[in-house]
Design goal:
Elements: E1 2-10, H1 15-27, E2 32-37, E3 40-43, E4 54-63, H2 67-80, E5 95-101, E6 106-107, E7 112-113, H3 122-131, H4 143-149, E8 156-160
Antiparallel strand pairs: 1-4, 1-5, 2-4, 3-4, 3-8, 6-7
Helix pairs in contact: 3-4
Length: 171
């Protein structure tokens, strides 16, 4: 079994509900066992800044899926929850990104692990550090060192814990 970390985000509509549904969809997959979810973070948009702030969290999971199969599941989850293709860095109902997958380093046309922008995104690093304070990037520094190097921590505000999820509920 591999351990993976997924970034969850939303900046349209009922952001909490969208993240809850993404979590529920992933948790119901037979090859995924969600172990923990970070607190919720209210975060400034990146790239295109004239849009709603995001609500973000990170999920830690065990999976027997390959990275490519996990990508297929995350993309299907996004589509199921109403994400439609927009412009790069545009608003979205839900975003589910593979951040890390064990100690794998992978760069293909369709998937990069660790996530290509992970080192620069406080909205990912802060919840990752919350879940695994001693986590290191594959062949890289500890997450805490990356956090120390970045500024603008005020653009990521913890707003509460991830709401409890009833694993028997339908989505």
């Amino acid at each position: 079994m591999a351990i993976a970390y997924l970034g969850l985000g939303s900046n349209l509509g009922d952001r909490v509900q969208h993240l809850m549904r993404a979590y529920a969809t992933l948790a119901q997959h037979p090859a995924i066992s969600v172990q923990a979810v970070s607190s919720l973070y209210h975060t400034a948009p990146v790239g295109v800044t004239e849009q709603n702030w995001f609500l973000n969290a990170v999920a830690q999971l065990y999976t027997t899926l390959s990275p490519r199969a996990l990508l297929t599941v995350t993309q299907a989850t996004e589509r199921r929850l109403g994400r439609t293709p927009m412009f790069h860095w545009g608003p979205r109902v839900v975003d589910v990104d593979i951040l890390l997958y064990d100690s794998l380093q992978l760069h293909t046309p369709f998937l990069t692990i660790p996530h290509a922008a992970l080192r620069d995104r406080l909205f990912v690093l802060i919840p990752l550090h919350e879940l695994a304070p001693d986590l290191r990037l594959p062949c890289g520094p500890p997450i805490r060192d990356l956090l120390t190097a970045l500024a603008d921590h005020d653009r990521v505000q913890q707003v509460g814990t991830f709401p409890a999820f009833n694993h028997g509920a339908s989505v």
